[in-house]
Amino acid sequence: MSTLEIRDLHVSVGDKEILKGVDLVVLAGKTHAIMGPNGSGKSTLAYAIAGHPKYTITSGSVTLDGEDLLDMTVDERARAGLFLAMQYPVEIPGVSVSNFLRSAVTAVSGEAPKLRQFAKDLKVGMDNLAIDSAFATRNVNEGFSGGEKKRHEILQLELLKPKVAVLDETDSGLDVDALRVVSEGVNRFRANGETGVLLITHYTRILRYVKPDFVHVFSAGRIVEEGGPELAEKLENEGYEAYTKVSS
Ligand SMILES: Nc1ncnc2c1ncn2[C@@H]1O[C@H](COP(=O)(O)OP(=O)(O)OP(=O)(O)O)[C@@H](O)[C@H]1O
Ligand SMILES: [Mg+2]
Fold first, then answer.
1. Average pLDDT, the chain
2. CB under 8 Å to 232, separation ≥6 — which residues?
3. Structural domain tally of the chain?
4. Is the separation of the CB atoms in 239 and 207 below 8 Å?
5. Ligand 1 atom 18 nearest Cα
6. For the chain, is the Cβ count within 10 Å smaller at the N or the C terminus?
7. Region 163-179: what's the mean pLDDT?
8. Candidates 12, 18, 49, 200: which one to mutate for ligand 1, based on the most atoms within 8 Å of Cβ?
């Protein structure tokens, strides 16, 4: 059972403070949705947890099962069981999807998976996500459609089996069918009841398929309200105006 604990996290980019004291505990077996307006700092939280060098932690702590994540390199965080699906995934020219995924599994698990087993796992993962087999030979994210990028991220999730997954706008740019396929992937990932999911989104659309246990509202670099799934419904109806007024 894994727990990601974020305590009083302050994060700056350059000399601009973006996160102004975030407290959040992502529990094993639970799905936490973070919702909030554009520019409120949701992606900054994801990057800071994952160890992006541009985001400076000025104070606070982040631990996974009691271990200090902030003290770890990006690789060590991944090996500790943290996974980040980025809002805007990067292209890796010259590296095929299958090579990339095998390297990622090797890096995270500490040993290279047997080729035959890996090929099997990859096929199952791709079939689950309704990804065409030709996809495996394409270069990572090069010319991928929005939907293909997101499916590729869920494919990583299926193969890497992290303890905690941070999914930043995994639903953006997906048509209804792709949204369902991607949501089913997230649901498979959390089905064991031991993995935590932090799902960052603007919209309640994905929350119809991936039911959150907790909803946290982000505004101006802080969590300003927390509740259960009913809070998402409220936001859908009323928008974020109430929160943005309070914080400005
Ligand atoms: N690398 C960066 N350089 C400069 N400013 C940044 C950087 N990253 C984030 N910011 C600023 O921090 C604020 C929060 O950005 P962030 O991307 O975290 O918001 P968000 O809540 O994810 O928004 P969205 O819903 O649009 O994805 C914004 O004002 C943004 O311009
Ligand atoms: Mg964002």
1. 92
2. 33, 35, 204, 207, 212, 215
3. 1
4. no
5. 41
6. C
7. 87
8. 18
125 lines ligand 1 (CB under 6 A): no
Span 19-68, pLDDT tens digits:
999 999 999 899 999 999 999 999 999 999 999 999 999 999 999 999 99
Pocket flag, ligand 1, residue 15 (CB < 6 Å) = no
- Does residue 31 have its Cβ closer than 6 Å to ligand 1? no
CATH number at residue 162: 3.40.50.300
Q: What angle (nearest 5°) sits at the alpha carbon of residue 13, between those of residues 9 and 16?
A: 90
Q: Which structural domain, as residue segments, surrounds residue 143?
A: 3-247
pLDDT at 138 over 70: yes
Summarize the confidence of residues 187-206 as an average pLDDT: 90
Q: Does pTM top 0.85 for this prediction?
A: yes
Is the pLDDT reported for residue 172 higher than 70? yes
Ligand 1 atom with minimal separation from the 221 CA: 14
